[in-house]
């Protein structure tokens, strides 16, 4: 069952596969189960050969993915998995693109030219001669990839890859397409939520003492049951929200959280927009909410959720908030993000699998809501004071 029919014109069999895969994600509670869903559903859906995912510390200053804590992989030889962290920082095309665009999914051959990715691989092998290229069973055969990250912090991410025979890798012609990108965009909220839940729960099991450290972090953090009773909250959360451990979440925040939680409970919803963030207004300012479900069995009969509240200060969140404040709907927000990326309406239509006429209609509505008449005025209206 699904709440809202998928608004994009992708084949019905893809739509049904997306829905089935989402259902499989929400049945995962271990790494082994998640690997199984990747093997049985995700890789076949993209006709891909491998995938990997983990924690990421994106470093935009050096245009690097920074420290990468790989968590798990599917279709990757074990002898390569432990060495992959050395090669990932060389894929600088990803942070370079994410620094200037708002797209939730990027792909070689669509967003990143194939020759750029080939040069990045060449540089890695040139600077790391200890890795013999012809015997590197994972990186060398990769012809192209899809990648998605949790925005705006970019704390964890996923890569899906297609391989080619070594002698054909540079001329491999099985490209990822806009269809693949759109399918991953629609899977993304449930996929990243499942990965984050399993990873976080594993770490809480291994490092239970770290929970105590949440008391002193500068971000407001709370653990609460699905009945909205707070199990734990740190000092910052208590001061900002005005509740303590054992009390109920305030009604307005409860309403926002209930709506967000419902997205990850059956019947599942496939969102039309992958860019909308969740905000909460308080006298102290506007806060962005980050929500993650912890493993059900660790906290009794009810699911437990981890909530983070961060002041809206970064450009990505400020723009997103500005779009919501003027009343842009989800489609208009998605189109606006692509306009800000510099894409033309025809390219946006192809990207979102909608008609150019629908893009033009929504661009007109965006301009009306923002009180602008030209693309230049739109850019100016959406620019931030510190840009």
UniProtKB/TrEMBL annotation:
It comes from the Bacteria. This is HTH luxR-type domain-containing protein. InterPro entries: Sig_transdc_resp-reg_C-effctor, Tscrpt_reg_LuxR_C, WH-like_DNA-bd_sf. Residues 325-382 form the HTH luxR-type domain. It comes from Nitrospina watsonii.
């Amino acid at each position: 069952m699904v709440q809202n029919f998928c608004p994009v014109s992708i084949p019905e069999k893809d739509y049904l596969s997306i829905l089935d895969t989402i259902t499989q994600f929400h049945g995962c509670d271990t790494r082994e189960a998640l690997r199984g869903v990747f093997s049985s559903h995700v890789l076949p859906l993209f006709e891909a050969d491998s995938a990997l995912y983990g924690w990421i510390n994106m470093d935009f200053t050096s245009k690097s993915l920074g420290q990468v804590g790989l968590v798990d992989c599917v279709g990757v030889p074990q002898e390569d998995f432990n060495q992959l962290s050395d090669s990932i920082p060389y894929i600088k095309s990803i942070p370079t693109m994410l620094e200037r665009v708002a797209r939730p999914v990027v792909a070689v051959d669509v967003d990143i030219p194939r020759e750029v990715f080939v040069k990045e691989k060449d540089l890695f092998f040139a600077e790391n001669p200890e890795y013999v290229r012809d015997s590197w069973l994972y990186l060398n055969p990769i012809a192209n990839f899809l990648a998605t990250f949790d925005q705006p912090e970019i704390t964890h991410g996923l890569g899906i890859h297609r391989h080619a025979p070594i002698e054909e890798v540079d001329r491999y012609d099985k490209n990822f397409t806009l269809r693949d990108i759109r399918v991953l965009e629609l899977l993304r909220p449930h996929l990243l939520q499942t990965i984050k839940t399993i990873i976080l729960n594993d770490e809480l099991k291994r490092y239970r003492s770290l929970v105590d450290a949440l008391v002193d972090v500068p971000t407001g953090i709370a653990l609460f049951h699905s009945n909205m009773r707070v199990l734990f909250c740190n000092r910052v959360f208590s001061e900002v929200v005005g509740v303590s451990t054992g009390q109920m979440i305030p009604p307005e925040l409860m309403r926002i959280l209930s709506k967000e939680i419902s997205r990850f409970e059956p019947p599942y919803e496939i969102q039309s927009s992958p860019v909308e963030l969740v905000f909460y207004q308080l006298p102290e300012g506007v806060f962005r909410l980050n929500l993650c479900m912890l493993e059900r069995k660790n906290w009794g009969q009810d699911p437990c959720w981890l909530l983070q509240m961060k002041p809206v200060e970064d450009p990505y969140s400020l723009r997103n908030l500005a779009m919501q404040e003027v009343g842009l709907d989800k489609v208009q927000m998605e189109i606006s993000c692509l306009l800000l990326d510099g894409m033309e309406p025809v390219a946006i239509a192809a990207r979102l699998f909608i008609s150019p006429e629908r893009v033009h209609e929504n661009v007109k509505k965006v301009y009306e809501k923002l009180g602008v008449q030209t693309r230049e005025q739109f850019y100016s209206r959406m620019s931030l004071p510190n840009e």
